[in-house]
Amino acid sequence: MTKINIAWSWWWTWGHVFPIKSLIQYLQNHEEFKKDVDTMVWFWKKWSLEEENYEQLKKNITNLYFCPIFSWKRRREKSFSAICKNLWDLVLFSYGILQSLFALKKYHIDVVFCKWGYVALPVVFAAKVLWKKIVVHESDVHPWLVNRIASKYAKKTFTGFDNVIKDAETVGQILSDDLLPEVKENQQSKETKVLVMWGSQWSKNLYEALAEALKNKELENMHFDIVLGKLNKETWKLFNSFSNVTCHDFLSQKEMWEYYLTSDIAITRAGTTSLAEQNLFDLKLIMIPIPWTHDQKDNAKWYVKNFDWILIDQDDSKFVENLQNTLISLKDYKKSLSSKDREKEISIAKEKILNAIIYY
Fold first, then answer.
1. C-alpha to C-alpha distance for 308 and 302, rounded to whole angstroms
2. Average confidence (pLDDT) over 283-291
């Protein structure tokens, strides 16, 4: 078999960077896939989170390259400023297609993998023009615009949930092998442990609400591990007076498995990758979706329907009270860790996607 060249293209949030990074690492670590791949090219913007992760991967993957391009982010506002930005971004988008055409030919790309996000679209259009194979993965309950378009041109489309895109194959989420526990035994403590994962974006008011809720003495016997994110370091000060709180700037996935394993409850946004990771370790979830994006609320509603999880509306006037009361109701909760084959569950999506990219 002639070796193939792959283009990777997706958006900038951790929930989408980590899955694609793990997909590249999985390919690199499995000779049955690695032997049939020549060159890989990562498309995104200059000075981005993607480029930062590319630099890390490049240390061990010599056939991986980074290709910065321009694109268009559609703004739905009706203001004059938004209209002007959309018109200018259309110019950049057109230029991004030309950049993608040149790059796909330069690197002799055979297949484009599209995960999500507006920078993927110029690459997808260029791939369609050049009759290159396109493979898509949509992680949310409802498909975003880019993947709705990309799936029309794709030879194979995968989804995280059933009935998201017509004729797609459901494979679940793309999870990292770094999450596999290094120990097999249950390391749960006697106290109820809560993992708080809101990340950096738009979350400062949530940490303030949590600090207010923790003033209730009924919560003193619960322990909270709070992952603040790199942009919320000043938020440490909110929790200095709480002896039952440990704050972390950031936890890599190689560090995260232990917190997933030992925690009973997670308070989280509703990004599909995080929800799938936490579900893998049987945590009870309190989900607080980003209120102005329909995808997270829809994701949360799906998990409420299919699991015994809890959805709290951040915009509710009684948000702090609801959060506090929910935690009090779970103050003695201890999860039951199942014996599921986590290694197999983590590999399913990656195996099927890589088979489609390389051999289908």
1. 11
2. 94
Instruction: Specify the CATH superfamily of domain 187-336.
Output: Glycogen Phosphorylase B; (3.40.50.2000)
Give the C-alpha separation, 26 to 17, whole Å: 14
For domain 4-176+343-358, give its CATH number from 1.20.210.10, 3.40.50.2000, 3.40.50.300, 2.40.50.100: 3.40.50.2000
Ordered by start, the domain boundaries in the chain are 4-176+343-358, 187-336
Q: Say which amino acid occupies 39.
A: T
Q: Per this entry, what is the length of the chain? A: 360
Domains 4-176+343-358 and 187-336 share a fold: yes
**pLDDT, position 74:** 59
H/E stretch holding 76: none
**More confident site: 88 or 42:** 42
- The DSSP-derived string for 183-236 is --S----SSEEEEEE--STT-HHHHHHHHHHTTSGGGTTEEEEEE--TT-GGGG
Strand partners, 66: 42
Give the Cβ contact number of residue 353 at 10 Å: 25
Q: Left if phi > 0, otherwise alpha if psi is -120 to 50, otherwise beta: which for 163?
A: left
Name the helix (H) or strand (E) containing 314: none
Phi, psi of 323, rounded to the nearest 5 degrees: -65, -45
Model-level pTM greater than 0.90?
no
Angle CA 196–197–198, to nearest 5: 115
HSE-CB of 173 using CA atoms within 13 angstroms: 23
